[in-house]
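Session log. Operator J.P. requested a structure for one protein chain; no other inputs attached. Running the standard single-chain path with token output.
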Amino acid sequence: MALDSRATEFAAVMAASVVTDRSTRRTIESGLREVTELLTRLRDRKGRLYVVGNGGSAGVASHAVTDFLNVGKLRAATVHDPSLLTCMANDYSYATAFANILRTLAERDDVLIAISSSGKSMNIRNAVDAMRSLGGTSITLSGFDSANPLRPMGELNFWLD
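Structure written below.
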């Protein structure tokens, strides 16, 4: 595939993206600028970035953390270490596993990126609620149904059909 064709496809994907805060639609450019500024401030104050997802979204989360840490020089981590995650799921429930981990690790003003293709995963939504209760910031990435329950939960939300 030629570079021009890939650029055209990428432009179409970006144009189809919808960015909102809790209630207002924003341009993709303003949303990306806000995320960049938020993560830059996070890095400057040595805060932590957590990224969560299930299944394929966990793979995306892991890859994103690698880039955030290596390229962005952010203190970034996933919280889906198999032993830790299965312990929390077994002792409490899978629905609260990420939230319980974040309540122990995260601090006020830390940032969570919550990834769920469907936006319906209760454990991801509970993680966002936990981050909010700690005074942190959440960014959501979701797709499929535009009315999915994760979509309005973050301070900044990226949705792509």
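Operator note: The longest strand covers residues 137-143.
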